[in-house]
Amino acid sequence: MSIKVDLADFWHESTRSEKEKNRLYLYLKSLVDIELSDEPDVLIYSCFGRTHRMFKGPKIYFTGENDRPDFRNCDFALTFDADSQNNFRLPLYRIYDFFDSFVSDRQERIALHTGEEKFCSFVASNGSPELHRNKFLDILSSKKEVSSGGRFRNNVGGPVDDKIEFLASHRFNISFENESNLGYTTEKLGEALASGTVPIYWGNEEVIHEFNPQAFINAHNFSSLEELAEFVMKVDGDEELYQSYLSAEPIVGGWAAIEERDGQLRARLNDFFTHLPNDPVGCSLRNKLRRIPKLLEQVILK
């Protein structure tokens, strides 16, 4: 029997047709028997609103942002944090379409390399000068032209339509996260690896436990962004060294490790759906809040 779910407070998915295309929903649906409903058994929500607070039943929180779950409002969470009683580690990159065909697509793109690829790609929209990636863009661009395919400092004639293909046409990609936090890994590194380019990564210092450090240039191994840029130039000028990055298995443990994690999540979700809480956390909190005016009234009368 399918578990009826609804989605709330995601980036901009509010209509039924938008929800049906939601990356998280499609990924979870491939693991467990769920279906969208306007009268859900469980609400799956994210961090871009407060609609979820109106729902009285069991709730699952998901975030791909550098954010933490509030377990006063959810019964289970899917975040970048390590596994715990109420949380399962699900980094944002896992729910992206490119990841399911990661191995075969990557090898095909690497095989198409002709040696005429452009130097380095960069795709971003946030132009804050405080961001590490924008500082590194300035440093690396002073050494060799970097192709910017996003809205920030675009120099390729406008934002690119196909990010993976754009990355694939370059030898390197600046794959910096917005922020550095243990466990926080978005789609950026995975996209670059899947495209058959060599990522230059900064963000999650623990990422080497999931992605092979031999397959990308890790900014955390260098004392400064200037030193990092010098090393990128060294790799660019040494074809044997460059090819060693491309030939490395990108995923620690290979695809079997990904399938194992999928199986673990399937088990956790099935257990949650089988034992849905009779008194969900959010519902209990609301009931307590409702009682506050009555308690205050009793205190005043005394």
Automatic annotation (TrEMBL):
The keyword Transferase applies. It comes from the Bacteria. Residues 6-96 form the Alpha-(1,3)-fucosyltransferase FucT N-terminal domain. Keywords: Glycosyltransferase, Transferase. GO terms for molecular function: fucosyltransferase activity. It holds the Pfam family Glyco_transf_10. GO terms for cellular component: membrane. Residues 117-246 form the Fucosyltransferase C-terminal domain. The keyword Transferase applies. PANTHER family: ALPHA- 1,3 -FUCOSYLTRANSFERASE, ALPHA-(1,3)-FUCOSYLTRANSFERASE 10. Belongs to the glycosyltransferase 10 family. This is Glycosyltransferase family 10 (Fucosyltransferase) C-term. The lineage of its organism: Bacteria, Pseudomonadati, Verrucomicrobiota, Verrucomicrobiia, Verrucomicrobiales.
